[in-house]
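User: quick one
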Amino acid sequence: DAKTTQPPSMDCAEGRAANLPCNHSTISGNEYVYWYRQIHSQGPQYIIHGLKNNETNEMASLIITEDRKSSTLILPHATLRDTAVYYCIVRSLYNFNKFYFGSGTKLNVKP
Amino acid sequence: DTGVSQDPRHKITKRGQNVTFRCDPISEHNRLYWYRQTLGQGPEFLTYFQNEAQLEKSRLLSDRFSAERPKGSFSTLEIQRTEQGDSAMYLCASSLEYKGDQDCYTFGSGTRLTVV
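Assistant: Done. Structure below.
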């Protein structure tokens, strides 16, 4: 599976949009982009995933560049409860067996 | 509760002792995964089951580790002769695989192991 690169930490003001970037320059055509987050002392929680098109759900939006080499997770109105480590993962359509987690981005939402 | 349950949440053990953790997946999920997470790192894959069959094991899973899923429902992860380096959070996840398509994983809250 392709590696991803994320900034180690980000700060965001409560109520503002949090934009978390991810580079996956070696992604191949059959690989999806997944985002999970992990709040302290809990297991990772699924947020969203996509292949080529931008995606939106009740939690977040996922913007994937046209060349698919990077993506951005957008939390439109960050709250203190969104403070967590956010993992960007690419995963093959043909190998759903495991995720490779990197170190993620620690998002700190501040009042 | 319809999520993935793990027991115990915390375990402190002395070096050299054996420990066993349990995972109860979401009931209709046929795939079950074990991951390990050390402080400041993302989770690392250990092994996974399709129903009762263990289909893949990571090199991280030494001979002291064994996982079972005897009836294709709950799973246990046993660590024999624990070492301090085994201290970590052990995460279980499950998913439904059907005709090559698969839901996203759902993770449990993990078992935090401390070996003293």
